[in-house]
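FORM 7B: Structural annotation worksheet

SECTION A. Query
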Amino acid sequence: MVNYIAKFVSHLAERAVPFRRLTHKDEEFKWTPEAERSFVDLKQAMRESPALQHFRPELPTVLSADASSHGLGACLLQEGRPVAYATATLTPTQQRYAQIEKELLAIVYGCEHFWYYLHGSPFVVQTDHRPLLRIVQRDIAPLSPRLQRMMMRLLRFDFKLEYVPGKHLHLADGLSRAPSDGRVSTDEMEGTEATVYSCVTLSAEATTDFKRETKADLVLRGVRRFVSEGWPDSKAHCPILALPYWEVRDELHLTTTYSSRHTA
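SECTION B. Predicted structure
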């Protein structure tokens, strides 16, 4: 994990000497006060500049997420450098989840924890669990109830899932193995997400009717135009009929095809 951001940590070779000694075959593994000081120093170096950089909205953003048997880890990255770290400890119930459920929960946790960085913008999610790629690309109706609920939590985000071998997912993997005392909720979904779910499970025929009526509706025609061409500069210049959509204008988008993760 330290080696991944080695080029951003000044004087790393000198600061990591106690650890290199412990890796020698003829060296007895003995945790000395010197090793403890070096350990604390390197952890601090990973949490400050130049290793940690400020978030810049104009740069491509990557969320790296991973799950261990007892914890979740997530790291926000830009240009290969960490912006922020996050960890959470699994509850006894969550520890009994199937591995694919834990891995998806790690993504849910990362997206929701870094909500203010990710919401409203496209980003890439990195995972070392290849079966998740098929889960995210398919309709959520055939999934187990637990996976359905987690997928519904992700409907609010515009992301592309990318597989990365575990040996290259250093940051998220390390974080998941040493989680904090934080928790991630897996309570039942209510409200908006439940409404979205009722929409995305429409039949193909009902979906076609829904699209047709949306295009015919006078108010929604105006909203569609604003979504595609841009909203007025201020709420005062927004037509009265479109005012109910003003507060959620950044959450609306148009798609040409119907899928489980987007609404038309």
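SECTION C. Observations
The two ends are 41 Å apart (CA to CA). Residues 3-46 form one domain.

SECTION D. Sign-off
Analyst initials: ____
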